[in-house]
Amino acid sequence: MPTILDFVHSVFTRVYPKDSFIFKEGEESDGNMYFLFQGHLKVSKNRPEAGDRSIKEVFPGEFFGEIALISGRARAMSVQVLSPSAKVGVLNKGVFEKLEKTSPQFLLLLLKNTFEKLNRAEMKLEALYTEIHKKEEGSKTTVEPAAKNVAEVSETSDITNPETTQEQASEEAAANKEA
Q: How confident is the prediction along the chain (179 residues), in pLDDT tens digits per residue?
């Protein structure tokens, strides 16, 4: 029975030069997932307000692109070569389907990797949520005293403002005449 390594070593390999993209965010899935044999890659996501933002780095032994392979959706992120070159194994849908049927170890490894990615994403989201919550709390404590001071000034100005006092006195006098 074939092992994961048997399939991985028999997959098509490609060498990418520095700064080239394995794939770009938004591209249609080509039905491939990838294994990094040599080199160093950057995974990034385009943010309209901030441009490309690095999400993580990929090192030899890691795989990526499996979500687009399985779901058929467009690429969610871009992967670019950081090292002078990168040797990448390309696992197409046909080989993936063979692995799916013959190698539960491969599927388990894929599942574990996906859960690790989800856990990392969840931890990042929690950290961002905490950071945003702290900033909001910080801005509330600086805004609330200012708002309180404005309210106090408004209340005080009504009492000390001679025009307001005269208006109130005139209204009270008019009310007393009608009574």
A: 554 555 566 688 999 999 999 999 999 998 899 999 999 999 999 888 888 889 899 999 888 998 888 888 999 999 999 999 999 999 888 888 888 888 788 788 888 888 888 888 899 889 888 988 888 888 776 555 555 554 444 444 444 444 444 554 455 555 444 44
Residues paired with 81 in a beta bridge: 41
Number of H helices, E strands in the chain: 5, 8
Range 26-53 burial, b when 16+ CB lie within 10 A, else e: eeebeebbbbbbebbbbbbeeeeeeeee
Half-sphere exposure of 109 (CA within 13 A, CB side): 16
Assessment of whether the complete model's pTM goes beyond 0.90: no
Alpha helices in 11-103 (DSSP H): 66-71, 93-102
Instruction: Give SS3 for 32.
Output: strand
